[in-house]
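We were asked to recover a plausible sequence for a given structure. The inputs and outputs are reproduced exactly as logged, with field labels preserved.

PROBLEM: sequence recovery
POSITIONS: 338
GIVEN STRUCTURE:
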């Protein structure tokens, strides 16, 4: 769960609320009856219709709602909505840090106006849920495309299906293509890991779970946000060292996380052993990284090329890591030499 950060970092200035976040408030505006997030009419065509984003959830159109999974964030359901299979995510209020829960919910809407084949599409969202569906512990609901019931974490560690070169390369390219799109729109995910990459029935990877995401300042490659974010948001095994040190956020943090994820795809092993505090300290102070020697895959010609690429992705200096755009080319070069 991310720590409190300014709502202005989560959504553009003309969409965030200027008053306190009450039960039915939203950065899109309040509706009189409190049943949806309603975009002001002056912005409707430009901000909603042109990008197929709807700010209204028609609850009476939900059919066959079935639970899919749950966790610390809340619960996910599969449902039919206006003739389409969708995922419905209820974000749970944290009793320890309710403000962080709210801001995690708004961060989930950062990609709401964006569409890309490797990004989970947001359809609609609301902070007000009908009594027969909601509960007091829910902050709000996000309606998204239903990608499938599997993620890369399950494929890597919980299945025996092969991850041959052609497949892990395709998965890697899907993830980087999604990151390149996000970064080109000033959005940093900050929690890239196998569990946050969903796998469609067509074996296509889609980046999901934007609860830690941050919008960078316009025309700025780095963002000076609350230092607490870098210590709390994201997953420690995939977190870039500059975030562990409480420094500025940039798109290169996602590149570091992708490097750890690619290593997992190649080895099907956990990146680190030991307790959390030791790993975090070692990553920053001792440049700890997953081993590039112990696994047989790195003894092949392809593995040696991958190890060079991984070394660039998880460089201690953010500026030394490739951009997502450059990383697409580097992946192609690694694959083309086989």
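RECOVERED SEQUENCE:
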């Amino acid at each position: 769960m991310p720590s409190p950060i300014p709502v202005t970092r989560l959504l553009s200035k003309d969409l965030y609320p200027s008053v306190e976040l009450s039960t039915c408030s939203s950065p899109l505006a309040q509706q009189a009856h409190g049943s949806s997030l309603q975009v002001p009419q002056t912005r409707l065509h430009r901000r909603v219709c042109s990008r197929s984003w709807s700010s209204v959830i028609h609850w009476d159109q939900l059919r066959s709602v079935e639970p899919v999974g749950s966790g610390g964030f809340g619960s996910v359901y599969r449902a039919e909505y206006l003739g389409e299979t969708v995922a419905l995510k209820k974000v749970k209020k944290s009793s320890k840090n309710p403000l962080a829960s709210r801001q995690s919910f708004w961060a989930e809407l950062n990609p709401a106006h964006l569409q890309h084949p490797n990004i989970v599409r947001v359809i609609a969202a609301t902070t007000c849920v009908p009594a027969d569906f909601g509960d007091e512990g829910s902050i709000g609901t996000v309606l998204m495309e239903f990608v499938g019931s599997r993620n890369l974490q399950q494929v890597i560690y919980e299945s025996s299906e092969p991850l041959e070169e052609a497949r892990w390369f395709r998965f890697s390219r899907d993830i980087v293509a999604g990151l390149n799109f996000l970064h080109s729109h000033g959005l940093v995910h900050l929690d890239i890991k196998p569990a946050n990459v969903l796998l469609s029935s067509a074996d296509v990877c889609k980046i999901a779970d934007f609860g830690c995401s941050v919008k960078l300042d316009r025309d700025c490659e780095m963002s000076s946000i609350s230092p607490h974010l870098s210590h709390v948001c994201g997953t420690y095994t995939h977190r870039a060292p500059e975030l562990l040190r409480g420094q500025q956020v940039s798109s290169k943090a996602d590149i570091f996380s992708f490097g750890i994820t690619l290593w997992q795809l190649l080895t099907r092993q956990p990146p680190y052993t030991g307790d959390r505090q030791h790993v975090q300290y070692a990553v920053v102070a001792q440049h700890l990284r997953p081993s590039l020697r112990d696994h047989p895959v790195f003894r092949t010609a392809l593995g040696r090329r991958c190890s060079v690429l991984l070394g660039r992705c998880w460089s201690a200096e953010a500026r030394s890591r490739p951009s997502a755009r450059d990383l697409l080319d580097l992946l192609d070069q690694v694959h083309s030499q086989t």
